[in-house]
Amino acid sequence: MIKELAAYEKAAHEVRVTEEQLHDTLFREHPAAFAHLAEQDGEVVGFTLWFLTFSTWRGVHGIYMEDLYVRPQHRGGGHGAALMRRLAEICAERGYQRLEWAVLDWNEPSIAFYEKLGAVNQDDWYRYRLTDGPLRDLAKRRG
């Protein structure tokens, strides 16, 4: 489903994760990330993958939802809302004060879904990313 999500987001060429990497990330003694699955009739139809953040302003952890994906033929069946609800429950149970994520600006169905849940677009912030060559170059830079 990770590859399906990447294709939907027009970024299939960026997927490099291996099954072994994913297994190590999720199932090590101290997981770096966590996942929840949505099932229907014994079939996995969606997932969310998330990790902990920390807010210096709030002084507590939060959740950053890296991915939320429901297969197209199962959208509208409440699976996405159930996955989001589970993350909100974890926040409430553990005293986390933020649940955050990013959505592509062209993804109108997802934007509408999130706004229906009461989410607010943080349009006063820009997201930045370093990968590949620029990341390696910065790591080598001195001074």
TrEMBL record:
Segments forming a coiled coil: none
The domain of life for this entry's organism is Bacteria
Q: Provide this UniProt record's keywords sorted from A to Z.
A: Acyltransferase, Transferase
One of its Pfam families is Acetyltransf_1
Q: Which InterPro entries match?
A: Acyl_CoA_acyltransferase, Diverse_Substrate_AcTransf, GNAT_dom
Domain N-acetyltransferase per the UniProt entry, residue ranges: 1-140
Q: Could you tell me what this protein is called?
A: GNAT family N-acetyltransferase
Recorded source organism is Nonomuraea antimicrobica
